[in-house]
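Following up on my earlier thread - several people asked me to post the actual chain instead of describing it. Fair enough. Here it is, all 98 residues.
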Amino acid sequence: MNEQMKTMLTLESKPRVGRGFRLQWEPAQDCHVLLYPEGMVRLNGSAGEIMKRCDGERSVAAIVADLEQAFDTTGLEPEVRGFVEMAAQQNWLRWDPQ
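Reply from S.P.:
Thanks for posting it. Predicted structure:
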């Protein structure tokens, strides 16, 4: 992801799994994984929780709110934004310009 794309991430952005990747729960790995033609990425618990909410319908703000409610906490926005930006750099996530 270039710097211009990075600055386009807003709380209204609606991230979704990138082209060529498929998110699924893998019982053998006991975690969510991203499958792609060349292999697989094992996601830790936090990454899996974020990724499974990146459906192209929910905004970053809605994802943050859902996670904060699900885990009875607050202040997750910086971590969620940071992960979404990193995942976009890896092409795991994408979103349309606002």
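Residues 3-91 form a domain with the Outer Surface Protein A; domain 3 fold (CATH 3.90.930). That should answer part of your original question.
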